[in-house]
């Protein structure tokens, strides 16, 4: 593949690779791989459903098993299809996971026994240089005895007998994995999720309607086909997080955790249980993120659903950037851009001036500008204003526009303090502040944005009056 200028620079950037040893879970569809993944990471990160083929992209997480720390990869169910089909592209993701793993954990359904696809996977794994640990899932009770006996024909020795759903067989799994993982890698230092420093990874989630190009954009950033893409709507189901190191145009490195999410359709159109789970997972990813990029298809423009997604992001207190994808093929570009800006101004009353960036996931154009804007908006989202600067702004704002006097009684605002960051939150103390009109609150917030450098990030403002010592209710 011939690389363009942006793509060549992007692909040359160093990825942040896990320092822990890697275990890749592989097997045919619906044998319990995602259930085991969730068990090992101790969280319900991967979507789990009774139907086969729920997992599509490979998902990674940090696992802890009886004192053994490792990186675990959940893969799509291995199916023998043409590489151009969706199942075929899923299989390529599984093959990539095995290639980077220290050991492959080959899971089969003991109750169903060994089927031809299990044998096909076994033949493929034997051709790989990656060591294999065979595990019989759903082996509780006696129903899986025949399947365990049949598995000896696969050539990987006695399987680990376990139940991912009930947590049985954990000790045996530890014994089987230990020889392949011991002495490899090193534990990564734990990060305090509540502490912030400019050197902490930028948690950047990409959200939007189906087929906006979210996965394609992340693949272009990484310079590799890390996520499955294609013309089919709704390919992405799980929210997938990928650690990355982005080098900006000044040559400075920035750690980034990229989060891909499932397409979010209008709620009334979402009837399927699995799609509901995918959308809920995407909304959870918004909660986890610091900056959220709402990706729009420039050939379709801004729709009501996009505004609903943007409003949800801002309600959650996350910094928002809007990116117009497929800009390289958009028609009437200037009027489209101005129309989107006006629609955002009208539709997002709580935040004015949201940054809009034009990008092309196909060519890579605009990616550096998008990431640069994300770094800047996170800085504003994380900003803390000193007491002196805060008070000087407060005095200027009140002098320029004094608060009203409803019923002839003055509202006295005594002082303001910043109580938290991420998003920036403030409390104003005074008398009768409960009578302050919403329009005046908006004036104060807009003044903060302009004069204190918060820009178009969510700003929380609350009002408090001192407790009345003569109030008998206290």
Report the sheet-strand fraction: 15-25%
Which strand order spans the largest sheet, edge to edge or round the barrel?
2-3-1-4-5-6
The tally of strands reads 15
Return residue spans where pLDDT drops below 50 for at least 5 consecutive residues.
1-18, 46-56, 187-195, 230-237, 268-279
Secondary-structure-derived class: alpha/beta
CATH architectural category of the largest domain:
3-Layer(aba) Sandwich
Largest sheet composition: 6 strands, mixed
Keywords:
474 residues, alpha/beta, Rossmann fold, GMP Synthetase, Chain A, domain 3, 3 domains, 6-stranded mixed beta sheet, 13 helices, 33% helix, disordered N terminus
Question: Could you write a compact summary of the structure shown?
Answer:
With 474 residues, this protein is of the alpha/beta class. It has helices at residues 5-11, 33-41, 86-100, 116-127, 145-150, 170-181, 214-222, 273-288, 304-315, 333-347, 367-381, 387-400, 438-452, and strands spanning 22-26, 59-65, 68-74, 103-109, 132-137, 160-161, 202-207, 240-247, 253-260, 291-297, 319-325, 355-358, 412-420, 425-431, 460-464.
Structure commentary:
The protein has 474 residues and is an alpha/beta fold. The protein has 3 domains: 19-181, P-loop containing nucleotide triphosphate hydrolases (Rossmann fold), CATH 3.40.50.300; 202-381, Rossmann fold (3-Layer(aba) Sandwich), CATH 3.40.50.300; 387-464, GMP Synthetase, Chain A, domain 3. The chain has 13 helices and 15 strands. The strands form 3 sheets. Strands 2-3-1-4-5-6 form a 6-stranded mixed beta sheet, sandwiched between helices. Strand 4, helix 4 and strand 5 form a beta-alpha-beta unit. Helix 12 (387-400) crosses helix 13. The relative contact order is 0.09. The model is unreliable at 1-18, 46-56, 187-195, 230-237 and 268-279 (pLDDT under 50). Keywords: GTP-binding, Nucleotide-binding, Repeat, Ribosome biogenesis. Residues 21-185, 202-382 form the EngA-type G domain. It holds the Pfam family MMR_HSR1. It comes from Sphingomonas rubra. GTPase that plays an essential role in the late steps of ribosome biogenesis.
């Amino acid at each position: 593949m011939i690389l363009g200028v942006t793509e060549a620079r992007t692909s040359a950037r160093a990825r942040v690779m896990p320092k822990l040893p890697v275990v890749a879970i592989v097997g045919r569809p619906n044998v319990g791989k995602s259930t085991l993944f969730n068990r090992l990471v101790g969280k319900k990160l991967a979507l789990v459903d009774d139907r086969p083929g729920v997992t599509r992209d490979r998902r990674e997480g940090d696992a802890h098993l009886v004192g053994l720390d490792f990186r675990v990869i959940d893969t799509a169910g291995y199916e023998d299809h043409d590489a151009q089909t969706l199942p075929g592209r899923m299989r390529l993701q599984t093959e990539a996971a095995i290639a980077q793993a220290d050991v492959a954990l080959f899971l089969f359904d003991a109750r169903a026994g060994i089927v031809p696809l299990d044998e096909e996977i076994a033949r493929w794994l034997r051709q790989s240089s990656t060591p294999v640990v065979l595990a019989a899932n759903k082996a509780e009770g006696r129903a899986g005895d025949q399947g365990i006996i049949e598995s000896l024909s696969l050539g990987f020795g006695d399987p680990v007998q376990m139940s991912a759903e009930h947590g049985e067989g954990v000790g045996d799994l530890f014994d089987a994995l230990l020889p392949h993982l011991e002495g490899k890698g090193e534990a990564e230092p734990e990060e305090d999720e509540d502490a912030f420093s400019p050197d902490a990874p930028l948690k950047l989630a990409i959200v939007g309607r189906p087929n906006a190009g979210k996965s394609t954009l992340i693949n272009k950033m990484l310079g590799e086909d890390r996520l499955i893409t294609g013309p089919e709507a709704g390919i992405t189901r799980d929210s997938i997080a990928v650690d990355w190191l982005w080098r900006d145009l000044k040559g400075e490195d920035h750690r980034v955790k990229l989060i891909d999410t499932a397409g979010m359709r209008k709620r009334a159109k979402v009837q399927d249980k699995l799609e509901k789970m995918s959308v809920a997972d995407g909304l959870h990813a918004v909660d986890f993120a610091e900056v959220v990029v709402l990706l729009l298809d420039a050939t379709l423009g801004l729709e009501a659903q996009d505004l609903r997604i943007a409003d949800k992001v801002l309600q959650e207190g996350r910094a928002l950037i809007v990116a117009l994808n497929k800009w390289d093929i958009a028609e009437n570009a200037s009027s489209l851009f101005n129309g989107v800006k006006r629609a955002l101004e009208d539709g997002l009353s709580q935040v004015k001036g949201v940054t809009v960036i034009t990008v092309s996931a196909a060519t890579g154009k605009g990616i550096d500008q998008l990431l640069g804007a994300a770094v800047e908006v996170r800085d504003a989202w994380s900003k803390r204003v000193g007491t002196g600067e805060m008070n000087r702004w407060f005095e200027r704002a009140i002098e320029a526009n004094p608060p009203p006097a409803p019923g002839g009684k003055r509202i006295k605002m005594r002082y303001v303090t910043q109580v938290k960051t991420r998003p920036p939150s403030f409390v104003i103390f005074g008398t009768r502040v409960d009578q302050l009109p919403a329009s005046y609150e908006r004036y104060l917030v807009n003044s903060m944005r302009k004069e204190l450098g918060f820009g178009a990030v969510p700003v929380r403002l609350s009002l408090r009056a001192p407790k009345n010592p003569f109030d008998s209710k206290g």
